[in-house]
Structure formats: structure tokens, C-alpha cells
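Note to self: keep these together.
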Amino acid sequence: SFIIDKLTMARNSRLSRKTGVALIGILAAASSTTSVAGFHVTTTGGKSRPKSPVQRRLYLDQLSNGEFSRETVESSMKNDWGIPDSRTLDPLSKTPVDQLPNGAKITLVGSGPGDPDLLTVKALKFLQDPNALVICDRLVSDEIVELVKGEVKTARKLPGCADLAQEEIYWWTYQGLKSGKHVIRLKIGDPFVFGRGGEEVLTFRNFGVEASVIPGVSSAFSAPLLGNIPVTHRGVSNQVVMCTGYGREGTSPDLIQYHKEQTVVFLMAVGRLRELCDRLIRLAGYPKNTPVGIIERAGCPNQRTVVGNMETIGDIAERYNVQAPSTIVVGDVVNVLQEKNEEGEAAIGLIQNMTDSVYV
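Structure:
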């Protein structure tokens, strides 16, 4: 940390009304706490920032070095994290290139459902590069993160701040590129299946870099399999539809109308499970007894699977505190491989608990 005399800072602030000033995010990358003119600025690891717009302006002006445009700096002052709008950052190359002159490049990597053994060989090789900067999603499993040999930054994509966290990812990426790093953007599942992978590629192109892509095993297909649920089965389901639980800006996406021989797999939807089931019944014609299965943390040591139907699955998920990342499967395939009682009824509730290595 360092201390700057208040009078010196005030004098400098009057002189520094110029186009380029440095960002608060520059220090955020260092993950340290800085004391400036009597107030603290906690970096990426915390939430506090200069307490007033005037203080923030003094702080930014004191750090002035002409590296960033005023538009970029002002965009960083519009949020509590001090993160600039990625659209204001200057491209690092006139046209997108595979590698910048300083050696920097980007690789978009899918981590699969969570089991390190389900990583592709190429993905594992890249993650063990000690010189790489790995920027990963919050839901990437700990078991996979532990394989990383270089620096790791984890996105803070918590409810209510997903868009700002995405901008933080872009800012970290931009910083890594400017410093000549091989930036690995590590995403859960497959990057292009409801993972914003396409959006990120377009943003990276605006930075002047063409990202390479390493596919991952999508949880849309692997999670049901790991939960002993086939997504297709002769005479039961002849089509599979993948859906997300969230549209743009938190809206609910259009629903797929009910068809008896259809399996619907929902990703990123467990947080609005009750609402989803209600809408499927009211708006999409699903019978209330349609089977529903949820595979939580597929492929991880603490994987669990719960099953029920449209009416009961909300209570079951609440009872067992089912959390993200989870994959929801809707359709008769849910019960195809489940053991039945004498009346031919499938079990409901918690049917698989890998923590105890048993089926219950």
C-alpha cells in the first residue's frame, strides 16, 4: 500500500483533465489493498471502493498515465467493482490475429461436467501450462481447478451480478493479453452450449485476437448419462431438446410444447425450478405427472440425483437442498432405468448419492 498527501493529490487532480487516465482496475489485478488520501480501495478480492465520486475521480487522476481513454475510465466509475466497459477498450491489433506480437493469445476451453477424467487430452495439456493465465467460471469443479499449474482467476458470477462479472472476465482477459499471457478461458461443459462462448469470441475479436477453441463434454448429454438417465430410448423418446432456464437479462425463454416421445434437458435452471415446472404445466401442456430428474454436480465426487414429477420435484429439490450446477431432465426417459416396485412405480426422491457411493 502507499499514502499520497491530500494536498498533492488535490493539486494533481486539477491538472489532470486529459484524455488518458489509468483505471482503478489496474490495481485490482494486483489483488491488494491501497490506502489513498485517507480512504481504502480494496481490489478484486473485495467490494469497497472510494466512497464518493469526488474521491474516485481524485484516485483515478492520481494514477493517470495516459494508457486508457477517458471513456474507458468513466465507464469503470459506473460500478462498484471499478470494471471498465469492454466496448471502450482499444483493440490490440487492427485485425484479429491468432497471436499478438508480444506472444499473447486466447484459448477457449470446455471443462466438461466436472470430472477431471472427462477433460479432453488437449484441455488437460493446456491447463498444465505454468505460464498461462486461467480465467474460469465459478461453477468449474474444484477437482479441475486443482489441475491448473499457472495463475487462476475465478469469475464472481453470483445472482444479480452476472453481467458485471462478465465484464470483469473481459477486463482480466484484456490485461492478460497486454502483458503477453496465454489466456485460457475455462468454461463449464462446452463453451458453445449456453455458455456465452460465441459472445466471448466476438468480444475477443474486438480486442484484436482470434480465440482458438477446445470443445468440452456438454453436461446436456453427459450429466443424464452419469445420473443413469438415457436422453433417448426406443419407444420412449426419439428426440431431445436442450433449453436454458434463463433468457437475456434474466427473462424466461420460450417453452417447448409437450410431446410424449420427447426429452427436454434444461441447463442453468435449478434456481427457478418451481417457476419452470409451473410454466411447463400451464403454458406448454405438460401433464402434472411428467417425470423430472435432476443431476447435481455431475461427475464430481459429491454428485447426487433426485427424481420426481412436475408437481413434486420442487419440494424434493428443496428438501435435499439441490444447488447449481445441476442438469434437469424432463420426460419419460427419467424412469426408464430406475428400479420399480411391485406396482411398477419408480422411486422418487434422492436415488443416487455418490458421496456415499450407493444408490438409495
